[in-house]
């Protein structure tokens, strides 16, 4: 399952797997038996977390499955806290490859349609390192809420190692949650990720 999450970007997936301790081969972008075994181990941990903490809607599960294992655990705990209090929340964005991030960056720029929704290029967002996700809150009629107060209200469920994007000063991002990293500089996280080394606090 996990080998399909990132399409043809094998190197990206190898980096994620290595930083998680699943992959011990070379970061060469070549899919072989070592990569396959690491992906299988990653999938096994994903299934264990589903059994332990429960499952959610299809879209949320797809986005959770793209995250690092520790982020998957924290995302599931967050979902449980919110849903148990009657908030209709879903995870609508998870890990993005550098290419996917660059495509998103182009939205609303260079004559492309849609609003500008990110200031980060590929490798400049914590979504690129398997530790960040965005939520959507939905009303009873199924419509997507854009109310700031709705997103502020669920921020209290970001406990422990979670960082809420709505607390940032320069660019508030209330639907955004991520794991705390050992250093806050994204450039440092990117270097560690690309070397297949751990970066979560």
Automatic annotation (TrEMBL):
<protein>
    <submittedName>
        <fullName>Peptidoglycan L-alanyl-D-glutamate endopeptidase CwlK</fullName>
    </submittedName>
</protein>
<dbReference type="Pfam" id="PF13539">
    <property type="entry name" value="Peptidase_M15_4"/>
</dbReference>
<feature type="domain" description="Peptidase M15C">
    <location>
        <begin position="121"/>
        <end position="179"/>
    </location>
</feature>
<dbReference type="InterPro" id="IPR039561">
    <property type="entry name" value="Peptidase_M15C"/>
</dbReference>
<dbReference type="GO" id="GO:0008233">
    <property type="term" value="F:peptidase activity"/>
</dbReference>
<dbReference type="InterPro" id="IPR009045">
    <property type="entry name" value="Zn_M74/Hedgehog-like"/>
</dbReference>
